[in-house]
């Protein structure tokens, strides 16, 4: 099994990066792993921590319509170059945390995606250089208020609500390009989304290179690589699972967001 790098919080509020063991113990690192964090003598028992999102990005750079079949279901052509947008860092939540359904929206969709974690400063990189800046891989759900996306004509509000970027549960260093990405709703064994990672229009190294021509990517930043066809609405009370072979699965559930929250 690939090593699983996690970020956890103890009962007294301390936050650590570490390696998750098969027995669910955590071997604590002395720094984020992409900053050359090394194992310490500290270990956490399974009942002594809570798993957080696996990194705390300064920004989340997302890519729209990066699977041809998703572009088709949205009624648009495949972009000739990557279509970028940003999600605030405040959208990030861990696996098993609630997604808040905002009162402003009447339709909130799931979008299962592969997420890239940047390990080193990346600016004006070639695709070959960009590949070395991708430290690892995790899972994301690019939650979207679809009605607001259509109404606004740009995507900041629709993509930017708090809790709209579930991320995790951990990071792995390697991923098979033929890995399958699937999204499931409410324990239905039939996926609502299913695609292979290599079906992306623009692969990860090209995406990171392209983004680095626009903005500097910093260690711990996250790139969302796009969602395949099959996006659809979620309702309060629904549970959504995004699974990627070789990583694991990201699980979240929907609750009503208080208008005063």
Description:
Strands 7-6-17-11-12-14-8 form a seven-stranded mixed beta sheet. The chain has a five-stranded antiparallel beta sheet with strand order 4-3-2-1-5, with no helix packed on it. The protein has a five-stranded mixed beta sheet with strand order 9-20-19-15-16, with no helix packed on it. It has two domains: 4-51, SH3 type barrels, CATH 2.30.30; 60-256, Alpha-Beta Complex (Fumarylacetoacetate hydrolase, domain 2). By secondary structure, the protein is mostly beta strands. It is built from five helices and 20 strands. The chain has helices spanning 68-73, 127-133, 146-152, 156-160, 204-212, and strands at residues 4-10, 15-20, 26-29, 39-44, 49-51, 60-64, 83-87, 92-93, 98-101, 108-110, 112-118, 134-141, 144-145, 165-172, 180-185, 193-196, 222-224, 232-234, 239-244, 248-256. Helix 2 (127-133) packs across helix 5. A hairpin with a 3-residue loop joins strand 19 and strand 20 (248-256).
What does the secondary structure layout of this molecule look like, with pairings?
Blueprint: E1 4-10, E2 15-20, E3 26-29, E4 39-44, E5 49-51, E6 60-64, H1 68-73, E7 83-87, E8 92-93, E9 98-101, E10 108-110, E11 112-118, H2 127-133, E12 134-141, E13 144-145, H3 146-152, H4 156-160, E14 165-172, E15 180-185, E16 193-196, H5 204-212, E17 222-224, E18 232-234, E19 239-244, E20 248-256
Parallel strand pairs: 6-17, 8-14, 9-20
Antiparallel strand pairs: 1-2, 1-5, 2-3, 3-4, 6-7, 10-13, 10-18, 11-12, 11-17, 12-14, 15-16, 15-19, 19-20
């Amino acid at each position: 099994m690939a090593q699983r790098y996690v970020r956890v919080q103890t009962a007294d509020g301390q936050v650590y990066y570490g390696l998750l063991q098969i027995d669910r113990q955590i071997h604590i690192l002395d720094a984020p792993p992409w900053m050359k964090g090394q194992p310490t003598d500290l270990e956490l028992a399974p009942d002594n921590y809570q798993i957080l999102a696996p990194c705390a990005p300064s920004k989340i750079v997302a890519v729209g319509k990066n699977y041809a079949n998703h572009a088709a279901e949205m009624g648009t052509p495949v972009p000739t170059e990557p279509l970028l947008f940003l999600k605030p860092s405040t959208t990030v939540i861990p696996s098993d945390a609630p997604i808040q359904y905002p009162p402003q929206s009447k339709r909130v969709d799931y979008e299962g995606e592969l997420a890239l974690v940047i390990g080193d400063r990346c600016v004006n990189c070639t695709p070959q250089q960009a590949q070395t800046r991708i430290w690892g891989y995790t899972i994301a759900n690019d939650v979207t208020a679809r009605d607001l996306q259509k109404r606004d004509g740009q995507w900041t509000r629709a993509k930017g609500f708090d809790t709209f970027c579930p991320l995790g549960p951990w990071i792995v260093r390697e991923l098979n390009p033929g890995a399958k990405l699937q999204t499931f709703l409410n324990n239905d064994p039939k996926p609502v989304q299913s695609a292979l990672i290599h079906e992306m229009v623009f692969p990860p190294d090209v995406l990171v290179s392209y983004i680095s021509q626009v903005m500097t990517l910093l260690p711990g930043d996250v790139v969302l690589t796009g969602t395949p066809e099959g996006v659809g609405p979620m309702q309060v009370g629904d549970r959504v699972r995004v699974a990627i072979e070789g990583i694991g699965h990201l699980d979240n559930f929907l609750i009503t967001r208080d208008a005063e929250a």
